[in-house]
Here is the input.
Amino acid sequence: MDKVLQDELIAFGAVLINGPKWCGKTTTAKQYVKSILNMQDPSRKSNFLKTAKINPLILLQGETPRLIDEWQLAPELWDAIRHDIDEKQKEGLYILTGSSKVDESKISHSGVGRISRVLMRTMSLYESTDSNGAVSLSDLFDSKSFNMAKSNLSINDISRLIVRGGWPNSIGKDIKVAMKQVAGYIQTIVKTEIKTIDGVERDEAKTLAVLKSLARHTSTQATDAKIVADVEFNHYTIHRNTLSDYLKVLRELYIIEDLPAWSPKLRSKTTIRTSNTRHFIDPAFAASLLGATPDDLLRDIETMGLLFESLVIRDLRVYTDYLGGYVTHYRDKSGLEADAIIHLNDGRWAAVEVKLGSHDIDEAANHLIELVDKVDVKKGSGPTFLMVITGTEFGYQREDGVYVVPIGCLKY
Here is the structure.
């Protein structure tokens, strides 16, 4: 995020950093600012909110870059910041942070060309130093030579990392402490945040039932109808429209982040499935909602495999943001799929399958090759590489050209 933020400050008058609570937004931003406005300061919050409604420009006074922390509490600040950028015609004036999305109807201008928006997730394994970084995603895209790599992570380590999550404050803590922190986060969402984000009263029990259903369907394309059925199975009635509202709010609180489908042009007439893959922004949410300890995951490898996939997707998103791009998934009517398609903004792309153990690597590699045969690519527009990301020990390139990379070796 440091590199992303530096690049955006050079190009835009302001940068908005969104993301889940406690992921390090404010700490990161403080490295680059000369003054700070903390909208959540309990002794001054009421005064700040009144001032924002009367004359928001007063709150912008201070040395720049100026940090406006949790700016969404006073949406009036958005248009004031945009106006100030227009007046000064300078870059790098403001950094805004927010742990929930603002009601766009309360701002009159999108901020396009003036305010950049970036998403900060929880820490990847390379950022938390759990990955040794022996394999660079950037190097693979640049077709640099690939050397054998060895991960330091055992299957026990991976189960612990899934349950721990990537919040900076959990790094280095005892796993029981980290689990309590995640559980506390979920309780805050269910009892407080789900209501305070927009003032709408939502049922705590239904919220928790929805979250638990999403946890059970992590890394799948479960439909909304399936989620409704799960909730009603637990004796709570919920309408599809109500579920849509709950899911919308959970996205706005950066709790869930589904992976959209890729829709390439195909050589065959195979129908592409367009359902999103269900993911939390951090796999520890799913583990906590399932009541899973590291030992529980080791005893239920199928569930661990799904949460491992979610961990890999989180890391790929972090690394791809750094490189400039985005991640999708592919699945067609025949059942052929790729867990992740990495797209860079310059047009290069790569296809990825995720397998926890070694016994499925051959099948995964064959699926990736079959996928490439289906995609209608022009000369030079095929994938830069194909990769199977695993929870195993060794990384190497197969005879068919597919890379096998342990998640404990991957970095940007």
User: Anything to note?
Assistant: The first strand starts at residue 14 and ends at 18.
